[in-house]
Amino acid sequence: MSAESLLSNRKASQLFFALVPGRAKPDKLYKSVGLKKDEVVKLLGRMTKAGITSLSRGSYGIDWDMFLPIFLRQSMNIYSAAMPWKYIPQYMEKGEEDFIEAACARAERELATVKVKLSGNDLFFKVVQSYFQILATETMAPEDYFEDLRVSDAIDEFEYSLLKMLPGIRKKKRTSEDAKDLYRLLNEWYKQIQNYDTPTGAAIRAAFQEHGLL
Known about the structure:
Layout: H1 3-7, H2 10-19, H3 26-33, H4 37-49, E1 53-56, E2 59-62, H5 64-75, H6 77-93, H7 99-119, H8 122-136, H9 145-148, H10 151-171, H11 177-194, H12 199-210
Antiparallel strand pairs: 1-2
Helix pairs in contact: 3-4, 5-7, 5-10, 6-7, 6-11, 10-11
């Protein structure tokens, strides 16, 4: 199973959230998540092979260094879809025959650069860790909240939440270089999502404008 498939799997997600507080052995995990021991061992093996978890001295834990690139790959769904549209008009004007392919290739290169920068930002690394740690220990959540919550849902929500939070982040004074770099990267992410219009999105925007709502 791929990392993405595992993060969308209910049982693998239960194991992931159970490991967020710290490393644990299968004997403890299968009791806490209510799964059969052989099922837990099999899932943990797949998660380790996919780079989500690591095994050390019989205990499993989340491999945060390997998980961060997976997180970025999945959390930038809107951003990654938006970027090619930024370049399509340029390549059309140049008379590029395969303008869509050229725009997608350029967007992929630019997106890879952004991911590398975010992966190398220590503050972003800590934010992602804290996000899951807080989520895994959230006492305000309903009792059965984590039974159906997939890790993939939590990752997707990060990008949506960014749209709501960026205006507040702008007001915060940044003192460290990591904080300044992270703000620049998140702000660019935010702007790309805000400016994103597929043909369908452009039609929705035009309809709102036509009736004086935009």
